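Fold it.
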Amino acid sequence: QSLDEETAAEVLEEVEAEYKDTLLEHIHPKNLAEIVDEMASDEAVDVMQDLSEQKREQVFRRLGPRKAKALHTLTRYQEDVAGGLMNADFMAVHMDETVGQAIKKIRKQSEDHSSIYHVFVVDEEKRLVGIVSIRTLLLAKAREKVASIMSSVVKTVKLSTSADDVASIMTKYNLLSVAVVDNTKVVLGIITVDDILRYLIPDA
């Protein structure tokens, strides 16, 4: 309780399961909502699913509307499918933005993302049209359009794709992250190699 929200969020992400439930039940819903708000959505979902139904609703009522909506969606899925593994907080830039604009956006939003390997490129409808690595962005000229340096997306997954299939896809195509999309290719979230490792080796 003496920790600030950001530090408390980091602690809850790493604390052993045997102590986590006890900690969660002793944190006031208002304070817990502030902590959850600091967490990546995939980590926040794990916390919410560990709460009693009554306390979960108390925390939901105290969350901001955007975070609450994202977590309500994610809590519908089990951890063994992509919907339960994905992080709804991801870095995306518009295909018509310049490299300079994209880099400025990444710098501004980087604190909200624990792992940034690639930036997903979307169109006006937020549909996935490409992907670009941070390295490629940094080496490109500031006035170039993102569309001119992006690569095609090798593979995507759906909300219902099994976690084992996600792991196989990421291994086969050597992916550090994969986008979760709906039937119209709108990006719903991403799964990183860190997420897959936590699923495959939960006690590590």
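The chain has a mean pLDDT of 88.
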